[in-house]
Amino acid sequence: MGRKMGDGSRENRPELDRWHLLFDALCNRSGDYDNARLGSDYCSRLGRRGEAHFETAVRNLRNWRSGRHIPRRRNFMILTELLDVARDPELLARWNALYARAREMEEGGSGDDQDGDPADAVFVPAVLPAAAVPTPVLRRFDGRSVLAGLALFCCGVVAAELYRAAPWHWFYAVQKPPLIVWRPHVSLMVGESLVIHGERGDCGKPPPDWEYVLTRLPISRIGTFSDGGIVRRNSNFCRGETPARAVTFTAGKPGVEELLVLGDVMRVTVAEPAS
């Protein structure tokens, strides 16, 4: 069931001219800052279970909120239901209009689906009309064409082997960033800073930039977050270590706070420095 969005009056509605900006604003207004709860509801709506489906859902939500991709129509309707957009007819009209315009702009309005979920992809082979099918023509054997085709084939094989070797792993192997360990309970003194978490990208690949990670972090009343640079962290999904963007917490004032950091609940305790 969709979560209630609160008052849908014009005073509270973000007047935004792009669908992904409106979508991001509605997610923030419903409390879905880090996509964890919305991703879980999205998987439940599709009847999917397991970490792989959840990771895919969260990755799609990130892409949709950032404007990198536009959801398929079926996924768009699910988001409409989960965010309870239909509760406000005026908001629903704007939501639908901005989505239609975004679909037209995506790939020149070809209607190609750009989600990151391969389970929903459908391949439709192109069929040429009968009049457009080229008629075979007898051609003289040309050795240069054969050599060119062979060279192209060899380049394809080399490119495939390079991709399988994952050269981005070499970079991180040479740099060898520090390994961080996630801890559910953290204690600091006022003014002290500590790396408390890390946001990974796709397994083995470079992590997202800090500007993106910052949008997924909560607001703390006892401290601030900052970029901790490139680190390594263990991931059950990746079955081992993978590069990550470190999140550093700097204690500002004494107190105890529970924070939802990148989908994990953390308890942070800040004390006055010992005199």
Write the layout of secondary structure elements.
Elements: H1 19-29, H2 36-46, H3 51-66, H4 73-82, H5 89-105, H6 143-165, H7 167-175, E1 185-189, E2 193-200, H8 210-215, E3 223-235, E4 240-251, E5 255-261, E6 264-271
Tell me what the structure shows.
With 275 residues, the chain is α+β, with helices and mostly antiparallel strands. Helices cover 37% and strands 19% of the residues. It has 8 helices and 6 strands. The longest helix is centred in the middle third of the chain and has 23 residues, at 143-165. It is flat.
List descriptors:
three-stranded antiparallel β-sheet, 19% strand, three-stranded mixed β-sheet, flat, disordered N terminus, 275 residues, 8 helices, alpha+beta
Give a quick rundown of the structure.
With 275 residues, the protein is α+β, with helices and mostly antiparallel strands. The protein contains eight helices and six strands.
Share of helical residues: 25-40%
Q: Strands of the biggest beta sheet: in what spatial order?
A: 1-6-5
Tell me, rounded to a whole number, the average pLDDT. 78
Which percent range describes the beta-strand content?
Answer: 15-25%
Query: How many strands, which pairing sense, and closed or not: the largest β-sheet?
Result: 3 strands, mixed
Q: Give the C-alpha Rg.
A: 24 Å
Flag low-confidence runs: 1-14, 109-114, 116-138, 170-174
| H/E element sequence | HHHHHHHEEHEEEE
The count of β-strands is: 6
Number of helices: 8
* End-to-end gap: 53 Å
Give the overall form: flat
Q: Could you say which structural class the secondary elements and strand pairing correspond to?
A: alpha+beta
